[in-house]
Every structure is written in structure tokens, then in C-alpha cells.
Amino acid sequence: MSNDAITTHLKETRRFEPPEAFAAGARVPSREAYEALYRESLDDPDGFWRREASDLVFRTPWTQALEWTPPHAKWFLGATLNASESCLDRHLGTARRNKAAILWEGEHGATRTLTYAELHREVCRLANGLASLGVVAGDRVAIYMGMVPEVVVAMLACARLGAVHTVVFGGFAADALRDRIQDSQAKVVITQDGAWRRGSALGLKQTVDQALDQPEAKSVTHAIVYRHLGEAVCPVHMKRDRDVWWHELVDGQPLRREATVVDAEHPLFILYTSGSTGKPKGVLHTTAGYLVGAHVTTKYVFDLREEDVYWCTADVGWVTGHSYLVYGPLSNGATCLMYEGAPNFPDWGRYWRLIEKHGVTIFYTAPTAIRSFIRQGDEWPAKSDLSSLRLLGTVGEPINPEAWTWYHRVIGGGRCPIVDTWWQTETGSIMMTTLPGASASKPGATGLPMFGVVPAVVHSDGTQVGADEGGLLVILKPWPSMLRTVWGDDDRYKQQYWSDVPGAYFTGDGARCDAEGYHWVVGRVDDVLNVAGHRLGTAEIESALVSHPAVAEAAAVGRPDDLKGQALVVFVSTKPGYVPGPELAIALGEHVGREIGKFARPDTIRFADALPKTRSGKIMRRFLKDIAAGRETTGDTSTIEDLGVLAKLRADDG
Ligand code: ATP
Ligand code: MG
Predict the structure, then answer these.
(1) Which ligand is nearest to the CA of 538?
(2) Is this prediction's pTM over 0.85?
(3) Which residues, in sequence order, are CB contacts of 4 under 8 Å at separation 6+?
(4) Centre of ligand 1 from the C-alpha of residue 276, in Å
(5) Which position among 211, 337, 460, 461 has the lowest Cβ density within 10 Å, counted as fewest Cβ atoms?
(6) What is the pLDDT of residues 255-276, one digit of tens each?
(7) Cis peptide upstream of residue 71 (ω within 30 degrees of 0)
(8) Which CATH number fits domain 17-82+268-454+483-501: 3.30.750.24, 3.40.50.300, 3.90.190.20, 3.40.50.12780?
């Protein structure tokens, strides 16, 4: 057996049962009910998915649920559909026709509401406009926009034509956009003049110009520009024969467009992963399997009801925005809040005022946001009435138990269940969590597998580790919303996901599974620390640090060390009112010693104002490793949010 287990020492024992009132009305009201559905999803996948997908629009039903030629899966063979019909058309003949699909609020407080009927109309008009530019099924369309309703219109208009959208986060610079255009060979780019970000106008069209001026982006024939800020705030240059205004393109277009019916396995979108670990990969998702995954998980994980006001704070440039802002909620007929701006504009109370004003009932955000709210203090949420909330969710990183309990107490008022959802760009939809009425939550644990998902924690030879032992997190069976390949690079698909552990999809994460079947993600396997002969995930050490009152955020990395093999270096940012320095460093070392064990006391504690993050807000440890080792930064830096943070850390070195 290989010596690759990950040891765990920080055992969290708190548990929070589903509130009785919540469980009583929940879609899945008990652990037994969950187990029965889960078992059915494995024993009879065809029957299970047929029933659960029955409210989606299929033009022809499937004849076979799965064809599995490892590592390539095809789901729902023989089915034909168009994803936009499930998100729009299916609601038009019902009371949802005039229900708000999108409640939008701009950074400066402007609001707009789009009903399902209006959204349908806008999607049809843009689809007609795109078709007039020559876009046909299979073409790729890059979308480089901010958080305005039109970004949803753009995605669904592509889907309506069978065109493949690739949304590029509006914070990426021109070169990153160019690379993604080149890799996907996009024919059209859809953008907007600019977007508000923390009170200033960010010129998006300008960045598109910089990208399109490069020869690598020559696949693009047209750029469509939505006017959001207007000429006075954000003047743009329109290049003749290439650039068209959105409003001119859709003007006079028919208000209806017949959806292009595609095969179940027709590509729906390509999404480049956020790049915590390396060169972005173009993850390919196809139509039926992805839609079914997003639809069913949204319904069950968020226990979605007709009257909910649902708010997922993720940017549409990430997979969370795709699955839980667009395809999942809209295919369920939900009302979604969409907010354009920053959480701290004009101050740290903005999110809480949004919840109060719009009566948000379900709130889904990321640990990085929660940690920054904690750092700002409880007085901000205290100013707003958050009593409309009934369910909270988190995604993106392991959540430190202290952050979890703060979220539960301060935002959820102690009454809202929290769903800690583990999944990836590659998995398309939520893979593990605790269904809110069915199973108790444990702070820091993601929970139990979703329907059809078979996770395991293994050694690299594929043998299972013992209960409560750490190892590699893999998925043993194909699931409907899994990625189909890496766009244009099937070898990378095989190499990246299917070669580390025999016969299994390797997630890249380390985890342990406790006696109750709950999964605890301990960090990325590439980041595992070798401390005094123990292999440790980063999450435990970081969570131990964050449980100290002075610490806002922490990142743990290893540094090559002649004597020990690896020395433990932690980067810590403090909460206001605490003074970084040798005294605090000693206190933190002792704290970690008490929480985990003396062996885990950091060799070096470095204080930083901020930690390097991906643009989606995840701590990026690979750069911290370089800094800890005194090396030059290696690898792609285009996905880092603020290069200034790295420069500052280096300067502190000298
Ligand atoms: P890249 O793959 O390009 O390095 P990324 O992995 O950050 O980027 P995503 O697909 O957005 O891109 O993130 C998935 C990863 O995020 C998971 O593999 C896991 O490491 C982490 N993650 C997501 N949700 C959770 C969660 N609830 N608990 C713990 N970790 C999570
Ligand atoms: Mg990843």
C-alpha cells in the first residue's frame, strides 16, 4: 500500500440538526428519505432520472440513460431538447409567465425586474440577432460582461441557437480573454460598454478591443456591445464592420424564435476553470446531462419553493453562476436576485440591505466573502432585518468551522440550515452536501453524496483508506453533469482526471469520510503539507488559526527544509484591532499547538494585509509556496486577483 494517506487531527464535533419546522415542510424530510432516494438513483438510474427530470422539456425522450466507455460518458442517449425551453418556454403557459425571473440591482441602486415572459422575449430577440450575424449551432460565442440581466439573456440566446457559450469573467485582463477566445475559436464576442465596480466604471469594451486587436483572436468576426453605462460615463470606440450595438442588432427582430433542437450530448458551454492550480482548462459541458444535474440539485439542495427569493452571489463568470444563477434556478422557475456590484459598496452593509429590501429567503455565497464579513464586524449585518432568510449555502473552499458558526449565528439567526456544497467546474453541479431538511450539518464538513454520485476516499492505488482517514477524493461512477472532455485536448482530460487513480475520476482534493458518511475536504492534494512525518491537509491548520480571535484569514504552505524535509510556513491576516508582531506570532503558535498538536506549530508565521486569491476569491497557495521558498513566482499569474498582493509579500521579504 502506498504511503499517501493524509492524517487528520482537528476533529470538529459540533452538529446542527435540521430545525424541526424546516424538516416538516422539506422536500426530503429525513435521513431515511434521503437514503431511499440515493439508493434508487444508483439501483435504477434510468427510472430515477426520468422521474426527476420529468418537468424539463425534452422534444424526444431518451432511449438509454448512460453509455460508459471509460473515461467518456454519454448520458440520456437519443434525447433531443433545447436547454432554453426548460428555462423559459416551459413557464410561459403557467402562472409563472409574469413572475419575476430576475430581480436586478445595480451598484448605484438602480433596479430592474424581468419576468419570465420578458426574459423569453429578450432571449428570442438576441438569438435572432445572433443568427443574423451568421451564428449557427455549434459555433462558439464568448461572453465578456458584468452582472447585468443581459448576461443571462446572452447565455440563453446562445443556447437557443445551439451555439456554445464561453463566459469569461469580466475581471480578466485582455490577454486572458484573448487566450480563451483563441482556445475556443469564438466567432462572436458579446460585451458591454462598461460595468460599475466599487464605485468606478470598468471599461469592458475597451478590454475586448485590446484582445481582438491581437492576431490570436482572429476567429472573431463580430463584437456585440450592450450599452449599460452610456456614452457620458463610458465612451467606446465601435470598429466598423466588426462591432454592433446590442440595441441596434435586436431592434426590429421578431419577438419569438423557434429553439434549435439539439442532441442530448450537444455542447452547451465551455468554461475555463478559475486556475487555483495551473493553466486554465476549457471544461466542456453538454446539454441534457448538465441541465438535469443543475435542475435536480437546485430543487433539492436549496429546497426551492415557488415563493422563494433566491440569491446566489457568484459571478456568472464562474460555474456557480452558470448552474445556480442561470440553468438551475431558471429551469425551476425561481425568482433570482442579481446584484451588479461589490459587497462593500458603498459600505459593508450592502449585502444585508439587499437581503432586507428584496426579502431574500435563500442566500448562497463563498467562504472568502464570509471571512471578509467577519473581519468587518457584526455591526454591519445587525443594521438590517435578515429574518426573511430561511436557508444559507456556501461553496468554493473548505469553510473554517469558526466561519461556519458565525454564518449560522449572525446571518442565519441560528434558525437557518446551512448547505456546504462541494463540487467543481468539472462536476457541473453539486456533488456533496447535507440536504437541509434531511441531515444534520457539521461545521467544516460538506456532507453526503448527491443522487447518482459515488465518492470514495482512496490511496493512489485505488484502495480505500480506513474510516476517518484522509486520502484522495475520487468519484467512482459517471454522473449526468460531469464534464465530457477538455475542449480541444482530450489527452489532457484523460491525463488530468483519469490517470492518477485507476478506474476513478480524481478530483484533485484530499478528504476524509467519517463514520456517518460525511465527507470533510482537507484541501487540495497538491498543497498537502509534510510536517514532522505527518501528511496534513491545509484546511486543518488554517482552520485552527482562524479559530483564534485575532485571525481573519490564514494560508498554510510547506517550505523545503534541509533538516525536516519541509518546514511549515503560515501567512496570516489579522482582524482590525490586533497588532501583528512577535507576541501574536508566539500566541498563534501555541494556539495551533493546542488545537492540533505541538508537531503542527508553524516554523514561520508571516503577517500580511491580504492573501493572494484567484479572481473567484480562493486562496492561491502555489504563489505562497514560491514566496516561502524565496523562489521567483512560477506559472500562470493571469488568474490572480491582485498582483499587488504578491509584490507586497515579496517586498516584506527583503
Ligand atoms: P482550477 O481547477 O483551475 O485550479 P478551481 O479548482 O479553484 O480552479 P473550481 O472548479 O471553481 O476551480 O473549484 C473547485 C474546487 O473548489 C474543488 O476542487 C475544491 O478544492 C474547492 N471547493 C469547492 N467547494 C468546496 C466545499 N464546499 N468545500 C471544500 N472545498 C470546496
Ligand atoms: Mg479545480
Answers:
(1) 1
(2) yes
(3) 459, 460, 471, 472, 535
(4) 8
(5) 461
(6) 999 999 999 999 999 999 866 6
(7) yes
(8) 3.40.50.12780
